[in-house]
Design a protein that fits this description.
462 residues, 17 helices, alpha/beta, six-stranded mixed sheet, binds ligand F0G
Length: 462
């Protein structure tokens, strides 16, 4: 047995009376435990977590005030913007089990410039890139790492386009576990790779794409005692639900008309959709916002699945996009995403590399910034508007999933005009967004001339 070197989970790991159940999204089979690959033993579909106690929670206002009160508490579980909402999460054996980096608590920003340029009445960005490791993954990782440790695992593992690995490595380190990262060689940003290295992961760059890494990980976890932390793991989804809970709390529980999310492996859209449906079910919100999913044209598996197969079976693609976080051709959670799109009446669309680059620069110009994969949301909003799916009177929230600093190469290439997407015919709109750095002699005269030039071109573009 080649994996004898890796210890099995501790047998004395915490056993407790658990209230939550795993429910197959395909055939509906309910069970108390999940297989290592988090797939249904009968039909192979993914599982989701539910807890009968969620249905009997105190109605509306009591829960809202409890969550609000916790914002002034200094208990570690209350300082986490995820565990603060623990009534709607699977419960660990005790709060001491929780592995946390004070995730969540991310800002909701207004986007006045983009609101003006798109003509949308109210436009917000919920910036999940403001999480401890710079992406939305932390909100799911705190929950999944907690349950990994509680189950006594020594090793956790993931396949990743970069952000999952950065987040997993951090939470594993905090929880005293070792982590195994499988990433496509040459296809993730150095910033994300550097995080996994610093947090002490065993980082393996495989000569394949993300989908190849995930296939391999799923084989590996069948043979070795490694706990799988991709978003196939339903505990991840539970934690990621809290972005929607926190968003609604920030909007004083007035639902926006529309929430727009980037789509890669489709865990996040599934999580936000699940949260919306649960909030609606237990009476926290009176109506459901539409949830729309946007993909890059070169990684448009869900778009094609809906368009060409009516959402009945997955159409995989050979993924290619500079938005490397969503360079995924065989999204694992496609069935969950189809379900929430249909339940909320949202749309699924695709945007070009040029549209992504432009939208990213526009979000940067708001003083906020994000990584390329997050910018598909603004590009997608414009696309959905042009098709008449989004109306000007709507209030819209874009979910920004990753921090600007996650992929500095993309940003620098954009401003220098070196992105391959920009090598198309000259584009004045794009040029106005570019701010290339200049190298000058260290003289007052040279700097003054540059200032004058900048002021002149600002006035010309005004
Ligand atoms: N945005 C960013 C910044 C991401 O890192 C990802 C996924 C997504 C959007 C898409 O989310 O997969 O839930 O649909 N990144 C994964 C990773 C796959 O490995 O970091 P999704």
């Amino acid at each position: 047995m080649p994996f004898s070197a890796i210890s099995e989970p501790d047998p004395e790991s915490h056993q407790h009376k658990q209230a939550y159940r795993f429910c197959c999204i395909g055939c509906g089979t309910v069970s108390k435990s999940a297989a290592k690959d988090f797939r249904c033993a009968h039909c192979g579909s993914l599982l989701e977590i539910s807890d009968p106690s969620w249905k009997s929670l105190p109605r509306g206002d009591a829960l809202k005030s409890l969550w609000r009160e916790r914002r002034s508490s200094n208990l570690p579980s209350d300082l986490s913007g995820v565990w603060r909402f623990r009534e709607l999460l699977p419960a660990p054996a005790s709060v001491e089990q929780i592995v946390s980096l004070r995730e969540g608590n991310t800002p909701l920003y207004e986007l006045p410039r983009s609101s003006r340029s798109t003509g949308v009445r109210q436009l917000y960005a919920k910036h999940q890139g403001m999480n401890p490791t710079g992406s939305f993954k932390d909100t799911g990782m705190t929950v999944a790492a907690t349950f990994a440790r509680q189950a006594g695992f020594h090793w956790v593992g993931c396949a990743s386009t970069g952000n999952t690995s950065a987040s997993m490595a951090a939470y594993a380190a905090r929880g005293g576990m070792r982590s195994l990262v499988l990433v496509p060689e040459g296809k993730i940003s150095w910033s994300k790779l550097s995080q996994a290295l610093d947090y002490g992961a065993l980082t393996l760059q495989l000569r394949t794409d993300f989908d190849g890494c995930l296939r391999l990980l799923q084989e590996l976890v069948q043979r070795a005692p490694i706990y799988q932390l991709n978003s196939i793991n339903p505990f991840r989804i539970e934690g990621q639900k809290t972005a929607a809970l926190e968003l609604l709390e920030q909007l004083d529980w007035h639902p926006p008309d529309h929430i727009i999310v980037p789509g890669g492996n489709l865990g996040n859209s599934s999580a936000i959709g699940k949260a919306l449906l649960e909030m609606h079910d237990i009476g926290l919100i009176a109506r459901l916002p539409k949830l729309s999913v946007i993909q890059a044209e070169g990684a448009n598996a869900l778009v094609r699945t809906l368009r060409e197969a009516g959402g009945k079976h997955l159409i995989s693609v050979q993924a290619e996009t500079r938005a490397t976080a969503i360079r995924i051709g065989h999204p694992a959670s496609w069935q969950k995403a189809v379900k929430v799109l249909q339940a909320t009446g949202g749309a699924c669309d695709e945007v070009s590399e040029l549209e992504i680059a432009q939208a990213k620069a526009e979000i940067g110009a708001e003083g906020i910034g994000c990584e390329p994969a997050s910018a598909v949301t603004l590009a997608g909003l414009k696309k959905l508007q042009s098709k008449g799916f989004v109306k000007p009177e709507e209030s819209i929230v874009l979910i920004l999933t990753g921090n600007l600093l996650k992929d500095p190469d993309f940003t620098i290439e954009f401003h220098r005009g070196e992105l391959s997407a920009q090598s198309t015919p000259p584009n004045a709109q794009l040029d106005a967004l570019r701010h290339p750095p200049a190298v000058l002699d260290a003289s007052l005269e040279a700097v003054t001339r540059a200032l004058e030039q900048a002021e002149k071109s600002r006035n010309e573009n005004a």
